[in-house]
Task: inverse folding
């Protein structure tokens, strides 16, 4: 089955700096890679996703890149703000199959 | 966007009792729903895949007789924790897959319910 690794497990950045979270996956059949943000005690919220036919996608301060050859994908948050503090999960799925989540990254943005 | 509700949001029960959790897709139909368990400061662990009109598919290590799943309609899946014990205390989250067409491609976005915090005394 699919195995998703996520790094780092914790990340502290100064407000205004950029944050990068990296994930790797094992199943070359995976073709959809969503990223979720989970605040304490709340549900995961989809913040951005990318499909395997695209190498990069951007939505305001958030961008995701995908390297299919290396089976790597990354989340980039620029101009971080305190409200960006949360746990972020990457995930991978092969379409109608189940989603496999990474272990999560706790991001802390220091004002 | 798509909305998934979950009920109850929290429940406290005595050891040995059964607890039913409902997951509903409010504005879309979901042939497939997923049930996750999340321990504090950990990732989401998939317990089972719930398919409308058929038996659920359980992940390895998840007891199907203990965690009963019923997906009787395209908008409702239920998870029943039978004979609950303190070690079953956790945050249970469901998700529903919204399969649609976007930009010519097939999306497979999952939308999560707000979760149910179960505490077994």
Result:
């Amino acid at each position: 089955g699919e195995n998703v690794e996520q790094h780092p497990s914790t990340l502290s950045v100064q407000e205004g700096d950029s944050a990068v979270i990296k994930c790797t996956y094992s199943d070359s059949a995976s073709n959809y890679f969503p990223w979720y943000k989970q605040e304490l005690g709340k549900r995961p919220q989809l913040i951005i996703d990318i499909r395997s036919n695209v190498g990069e996608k951007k939505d305001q301060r958030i961008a995701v890149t995908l390297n299919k050859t290396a089976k790597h994908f990354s989340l980039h948050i620029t101009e971080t703000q305190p409200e960006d503090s949360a746990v972020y999960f990457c995930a991978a799925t092969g379409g109608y199959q189940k989603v496999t989540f990474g272990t999560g990254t706790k991001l802390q943005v220091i004002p | 966007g798509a909305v998934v509700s979950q009920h109850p949001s929290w429940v406290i029960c005595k050891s040995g009792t059964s607890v039913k959790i409902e997951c509903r897709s409010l504005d879309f139909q979901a042939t497939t729903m997923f049930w996750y368990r999340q321990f504090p400061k950990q990732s989401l662990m998939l317990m089972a895949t719930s398919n409308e009109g058929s038996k659920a598919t359980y992940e390895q290590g998840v007891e199907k007789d203990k965690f009963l799943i019923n997906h009787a309609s395209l908008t409702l899946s239920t998870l029943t924790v039978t004979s609950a014990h303190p070690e079953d205390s956790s945050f249970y989250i469901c998700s529903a897959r919204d399969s649609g067409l976007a930009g010519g491609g097939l999306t497979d976005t999952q939308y999560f319910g707000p979760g149910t915090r179960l505490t077994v005394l």
In short: Chain B has no helices and 13 strands. Chain B touches chain A through 20 residues (CB under 8 Å). The radius of gyration of chain B is 14 Å.
